[in-house]
Design a protein that fits this description.
single chain, 219 residues, alpha/beta, Rossmann fold, 7-stranded parallel sheet, two-stranded parallel ribbon, 7 helices, 9 strands, 20% strand, globular
Length: 219
């Protein structure tokens, strides 16, 4: 039986991931680290309060999932964005490693590159580099493109992107296939498959995530 921990369980990918793990018989306990307590939690779920970046990492966790992600607009500044998307992510990974976690999966972004001039992609790239240096037995980095699904919050840029994608999605073929939008549920399914199988570090782009999501039912 597997014990998992999730930070970012109230976001688009994280909420789908939590639902999957609750309904997965192989997972006996899921610890979630959030600022507020989600309503109607399953008895399988343990809530750990997150207070200004401080929390106690749960013991005896097999797999840790990081689904953190914000925007500069929501965070309020680039500095505040870095506190969530870089510092809190890396801190979670370090705490997981110290607690003996062997398997770690994180949501990054298509195009992540520490040398990118784009602030967002540069940040994601730096996170990936720091996570690789920690030394997990299994490190899964998923790089989705435009996330599809219903959020609890409004993100104007993302909503506009979804509208444009629905109009021009026919162009996402060949080399552009990896930029196709992907359902958050499929990302969550792929994360579980990838995290629970294999060893070493693997980075998976959006179009390949679709293939792994289809293998979820085989677990």
């Amino acid at each position: 039986m597997i014990k998992a921990a999730i930070i970012g369980a109230t976001g688009l990918v994280g909420s789908n991931l939590l639902d999957l793990l609750i309904n997965n018989d192989e997972h006996e306990k899921i610890s979630i680290i959030t600022r507020t307590v989600p309503k109607g939690l399953s008895q399988k779920v343990e809530h750990i309060p997150l207070n200004e970046g401080h929390y106690t990492f749960p013991a005896n966790i097999d797999t840790a999932y990081c689904c953190l992600g914000t925007t500069i607009k929501k965070a309020g500044s680039k500095e505040a964005f870095l506190e969530v998307d870089l510092e809190l992510v890396v801190d979670f990974a370090n705490k997981a490693k110290e607690a003996g976690v062997k398997r770690f999966a994180v949501v990054s972004s298509i195009g992540a590159n520490a040398k990118s001039k784009n602030f967002y992609l540069n940040t994601k790239g730096k996170v990936e580099e720091q996570l690789k240096a920690i030394g997990f037995k299994r490190l899964v980095i998923v790089q989705p493109s435009l996330l599809l699904g219903k959020r609890n919050e409004k993100r104007f840029g993302e909503d506009m992107g979804k509208v444009l994608y629905s109009v021009f999605k026919f162009i996402f073929i060949g080399p552009l296939k990896k930029y196709r939008g992907i359902q958050a549920l499929d990302v969550a399914k792929a994360m579980i498959v990838l995290a629970e199988q294999g060893m070493g570090t693997i980075t998976v782009e959006s179009n390949v995530l679709q293939d792994f999501s289809k293998k979820y039912q085989e677990l």
